[in-house]
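Hi again,

Forgot to attach this to my earlier email, sorry! This is the prediction with heme C bound. I've pasted everything inline since the attachment limit keeps bouncing my files.
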Amino acid sequence: MRSVRRFIASALLVVGCAGKVPHPTSTQVGRARARWPDTTKESLENGRVLLIARCSGCHELYPPAAYPATEWPELVVDMTKRSKLSAAEAEALVRYLVSVTEPAAPAP
Ligand code: HEC
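Structure tokens for the complex follow:
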């Protein structure tokens, strides 16, 4: 457990510009949960950590805002093999990327 935490801490240091990789807001968690009922704030945070830790080894990190929500699922499919993500990790990553990039619902 301690080594996991150290690993995450060093991954966060590498990114440095954490502002580009935002934490999910409670509104975004709510929207994600409407679509994927088993989503939690923790699972979205986990997706964020995966992005930082596993998606910046070969190229610079593409921040969530680099692509629209509609394109991320396919991009993650393309990159899943390269980054050796498990199916569950890929799912957490997609949920994170989609929920932080999806435009807010239009006002009623
Ligand atoms: C083993 C190396 C490697 C890892 C790990 C990796 N990528 Fe990539 N990625 C590449 C290469 C090489 C390219 C450019 C060539 C290509 O698109 O095939 C690329 C391109 C991309 C692009 C641009 C695609 C486009 O069409 O413009 C995105 C976005 C991307 N990667 C996201 C990710 C994400 C998200 C992860 C983590 C799940 C990830 N990458 C992990 C090697 C990697």
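The pocket of heme C is lined by residues 54-55, 57-59, 62, 67, 75-76, 79, 82-83, 85, 93 (CB under 6 Å). The chain has a mean pLDDT of 87.

That should be everything now.

G.
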